[in-house]
Amino acid sequence: MSLQEPPPPDLRGLTPLFLTIHILGGHIGLPLLVATFLFSKTVKRHATIINFCVIWILYSIIYCLLLYGGTALQKDPPHALCLTQAAMNYGAPPMAVVAGLAVVLQIWSTFVEPWKEARLVNIPRWVKLFAIIAPPYLVFIGFSLTAGYYGYKNPQWVQVKNGLYCGLRYGRFEMLAVPIFCGVLVLSIIGFEVATIIRYFRGRRLIKKVFPLVEPKQPSLSPWCRAAFFLVYAALALGVCIMDLRQDASVFGYMIQAALPLAAFLIFGTQKDVVLSFMFWNHNHKWTPGEPTIRVSATPAMFRTASLTSNTTIDSTTPIATHPSSMLSHPDGSMV
């Protein structure tokens, strides 16, 4: 026995807003950000970050397939195109949350065990890259093929659900499997993010305990604003999953769904080095990360280095947090 989804709202009148949000985040902002990560000499990011941005670009393109063709295509799309988009629509959200979990795991592992990379030195680079990059795409293929199979066997299920994109109107798969899978992973993302924040404060307390004469800088508000935004972003994504489970056809949920690529761009595109790289007209603004060090102020000649991990490594893998070791400096603000 199959489940039937209640009729979704007709959002055809919101097409300009829906498409504009997707274009700003997934068609302009994120491609520009990925190009910056790949080609800039001063802005480098870990492969998980770049892959995360690429996946949100694909997510945005998938949801806009019908919108590219104008009003006529939205009203009566070819069945093959509608089936293709419907299948990919059920693979895109799981793909995105798996990529998000990979980013948060990378951040968390950097704080918990930053020296672990030495254990992986003998593993071929392509194997490590495959393990980092491939899981979201494998999940996407699995969910898309399953949804495509249901749609192929039941062509009457494939419809333009809300005037914006195609989907399946019946079946337990699209009504339960996708939101449950995404909800569980979003909860995991929130859990690891909270664990990372807790680890950060424990690291600061440990440094103060081991080096009681250290004079730490006050932490910058910028990474914490991004961390808070990331948590809000994850919570909103979880809310959309819950709305899908409850079959609560809300316009707000669809707009949140459309704004996720834009949120990803704002999180990763507002770091200082990225912003300065966009200021190509002013060559005086350059940002060069250095090795975090500290000075014990009791004796001028006595210096200690608190190099828990390289600042460059932290910045390339933790775009929403700053390691506590990078908050330490001379009393006058200079670095050793």
Provide a count of the helices.
11
N-to-C span: 69 Å
Main sheet record: 2 strands, antiparallel
Strand content: under 5%
Question: How many individual β-strands?
Answer: 4
Strand order of the largest sheet: 1-2
Helical coverage, percent range: 55-70%
Rg estimate, integer Å: 23 Å
Query: Stretches where pLDDT falls below 50 for ≥5 residues?
Result: 290-336
Order of helices and strands: HHHHHHEEHHHHEEH
Mean pLDDT: 75
**Secondary-structure class:** mainly alpha
Query: Tell me, what's the shape?
Result: elongated
Q: Mind explaining what this structure looks like?
A:
- The chain has a two-stranded antiparallel sheet. Strands 3-4 form a two-stranded antiparallel sheet.
- With about 325 residues, it is an all-alpha fold.
- Strand 1 and strand 2 form a beta hairpin.
- The chain has helices at about 15-40, 45-65, 70-75, 80-90, 90-110, 125-155, 170-210, 220-245, 250-270, 270-280, 310-315, and strands at about 160, 165-170, 295, 305.
- Helix 5 runs antiparallel to helix 6 (about 125-155) and helix 8 runs antiparallel to helix 9 (about 250-270).
- It is elongated, with a radius of gyration of 23 Å.
- It is built from eleven helices and four strands; from the N terminus they run H-H-H-H-H-H-E-E-H-H-H-H-E-E-H.
